[in-house]
Design brief:
seven-stranded mixed sheet, alpha+beta, 7 helices, about 210 residues
């Protein structure tokens, strides 16, 4: 239990130091045999304490003292959908959030890395934060993707562990930033369909 909490605290610090979260926005969770450890409502990811991490059951009911993040529904539903996912990070990074606000998916083939890691990063339809509707509209994208943006909101990354989820969030934000910078320079030079297909074949080989 203590190890899980320390891991969440460390990832929260890394998210804050990388400007992937701000103030009290965002939440982190880890699935364990005991239940789901999730950050508390109103906590700042950059300066979490052990008491800021709440244990909830598989349906989102608090087991330990404290009030879990209001986005717990979203976390619970993702875990129900994806048995391979053991960690979830939801934050509001500047570039990913900007694309989410524009309702613009990240689907332009500008780097081999973004094809290999993501193929694309979709935008889930807007719904009220913390609502069951938000969970319903967002979770379906995780059937095929590990990073999803939420319209006019932020982004979510999942992984088999917290380190993996963190790296996906960091890489997705870098991809979004490169998209913005290259457009300001004068426009992207896109990979061809042939090049994209070759990368997708390589991705399947790596995943098999």
């Amino acid at each position: 239990m203590e190890m899980r909490k320390e891991e969440i605290i460390e990832i929260g610090k890394r998210l804050y130091s990388k400007n992937l979260t701000v103030a009290t926005s965002g939440n982190i969770s880890v699935k364990t045999e005991k239940g789901i450890y999730i950050t508390a409502s109103g906590s700042s990811l950059g300066c979490l304490k052990k008491e800021d991490i709440i244990l909830i059951d598989k349906d989102g009911k608090e087991i330990s003292q404290g009030k879990a993040s209001s986005e717990k529904k979203l976390h619970v539903e993702i875990y129900k959908l994806r048995k391979d996912v053991n960690a979830i990070i939801h934050t509001h990074p500047v570039y990913l959030t900007s694309f989410a606000v524009c309702n613009k998916p990240l689907d332009e083939p500008i780097m081999s890395e973004n094809i290999l890691y993501f193929e694309d990063i979709p935008v889930a339809e807007y719904a009220m934060p913390s609502s069951a509707e938000l969970a319903e509209k967002t979770v379906k994208y995780f059937k095929k993707r590990d990073v999803v943006m939420m319209a006019n909101h932020g982004a979510i990354a999942v992984g088999s562990n917290l380190e993996q989820a963190f790296l996906k969030m960091e890489t997705a934000e870098y991809y979004a930033k490169v998209c913005v910078v290259t457009k300001n320079i004068g426009g992207c030079h896109y990979l061809s369909k042939k090049q994209v297909n070759e990368l997708l074949k390589l991705k399947k080989i790596k995943e098999s």
